[in-house]
Amino acid sequence: MTTIANETKVLTGDAMKWDLMPNHIELYHREILSAEESDGLGIRMSSILWEKIGVGGQVLPHYHDVVEIIHITVGNVKLLLPNGEWKAYKAGDTFQVPAGVLHSVANAGDSPSEQISIFVPVDAGAPVNSFFNTTLVEDIYSHKK
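and the corresponding structure tokens:
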């Protein structure tokens, strides 16, 4: 039985090491959330990665058994579409890649690009999703004190 976390965990970017991702070109990643940590939060998630693609680098063509959401945070990239066409995108753009769909992202600029990649398991039997609820509480911890 998994214990569900009840405290906020903080990962500082400076403390996270860039690891070279094997089988790709100039692709580095920092794992923001692992499958094991997801279990501890009581959620279904395969992984969340902060990725950096060096100049001339590329996530080689591939597909997954999970959905991948890719949000470009820095730089310019090209996305390989299922029809073999490459299309240019930039920071602020997001790709929603269904499970089983061939895709690739390549750096298209003169400096490294960065992206957040979220890998979500496919579960046809999952309950219908809804937007989350927020409950405001009295501000007893004001940062202005």
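(Above: one complete record from the training split.) The mean pLDDT is 92.
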